[in-house]
Amino acid sequence: MNILRIWQHPESSEAHVFGPRYLIASICYLNLVVSCVYLITNLRLDIDPRANLVQIFGSLVTLTFLRVFRTHGPAAHVFLAMAVINASSLILTFVSFPYTIMMWLPVFTILSVYLAGTMAGGFWSFIAVTSAALIVLYGDRLNTHPVTIPVSDLPAITVITVYLTGCTAFIGSMFFARSIKELLRIQERQNEELKEQNTTIQAYAQDKAMLVSIVVHDIATPLTIILHASEMAQKNKDETQNYLQRVHKAACIIEEIARSVREFQSVESGKKTVKLGAVDLRKVFDRARFIFEERLQEKTLTLEFLVPETSTLRVVAEEKSLSNSVINNLVSNAIKFSHPGQRIVIKAHETDEHVILQIRDFGVGMPENKVKNVFSKNGPTSSKGTMGEKGTGFGLPISKAYVDKYGGEIQVESVEEAESPSDHGTTFTLRLRRAPPDENPT
To answer: Residue 136 and residue 353: Cα distance in Å, rounded?
Structure first.
């Protein structure tokens, strides 16, 4: 059924080459060959050539319409009209052999529906059946010059008919074999395209799910700040103004996260490019201190910044996404898998063209198989932290996606606590491009 659908839609891709136009043209050329041979034979046998002349004329007119209109529609109607006239003239000429209509009507009905469509095909089929019925019933009265074939000529006519029928069947089978083969190739290609589209749709659905998880993941910390500050403001009214300032700052961060996620969605879909500029890493670090202050206190962790005072630490990136979706994700991950009382170290140094940034914890570490897939967004996995903290598993994939957009690199090394009790933990290393010294930070 799929092949027939392709065949019956000549406007789609390459199918028209092997569809109705190709079929009509092939039949017309066959008609010309067959009718010319029959015309010569009938003239030599002194048989009325009207049917052959109609057949030749109809084929030529149909090919002309096919050439002029460049579509099978008008040519199909001309072809079907000529077929009715040709069959009628044939039956009228040899009125003593009306049974030939039984061979012609089924073929004509199928071709008319295929070439002209259901409604038009039904109309031409009705015309053909009606014409044949009238000729069979009243053919003797309509045909004033019936032709009688001499018995002596029957063997020659039979041989020619069988020969031409065989040639027609052979050529027709070649057409259908070539047509079916090509249609199968087209169908196979369309199936491949459908598979690719299905893969794209599935990836799009996964990205949508990932973005939802990103929102939940990124706003969890500022929401905790808001809840804690609002509770403390109720208990300690003297410090209300201070707590309100913390709530306002955290709310602004949530707004920026939501905007950043929308921008990332546009970037992933190709609708928008990340606007890169010079970003001051010290400003990003100060923000991280504020964001994670309470979480660090809860787990009695120490966040250390080993940054040379003489370094400018300006990188090519986009500030909001670098802060919220890269640095904060990496620091949050380090806090999650660190034991209470441990420290987290952020190191940074410059080379001629890059800034190398390392975020290291001394926590539980990761197994080798998880290290390999830690940045995969197709199958993210999440583990509970050292104090039962939950996560979505989407923080690190989004971090890598943004670092790639910056033209940077991110790598991870990890040693499990069980493997090396004295030296374990995870280190994320970012390699970002240095911003030109004369470019103002964003």
So the answer is: 95
Torsion of CA 413, 418, 423, 425, to 10 degrees: 40
For 18, list phi and psi in degrees, rounded to 5: -115, 20
Q: Which of 395, 260, 390 is nearest to 320 (CA)?
A: 260
Q: What is the pLDDT of residues 142-157, one digit of tens each?
A: 665 566 666 676 677 6
Q: Which amino acid would we find at residue 247?
A: V
Question: 409 forms bridges with which residues in the sheet?
Answer: 431
Mapping DSSP onto H, E and C, the string for 45-105 reads CCCCCHHHHHHHHHHHHHHHHHHHHCCHHHHHHHHHHHHHHHHHHHHHHCCCCCCHHHHHH
Q: What angle do CA 381, 375, 299 make, to 5 degrees?
A: 65
Question: 358-376 pLDDT, tens per residue?
Answer: 999 999 998 888 888 888 7
Helix (H) or strand (E) holding 240, with range, is: helix 240-269
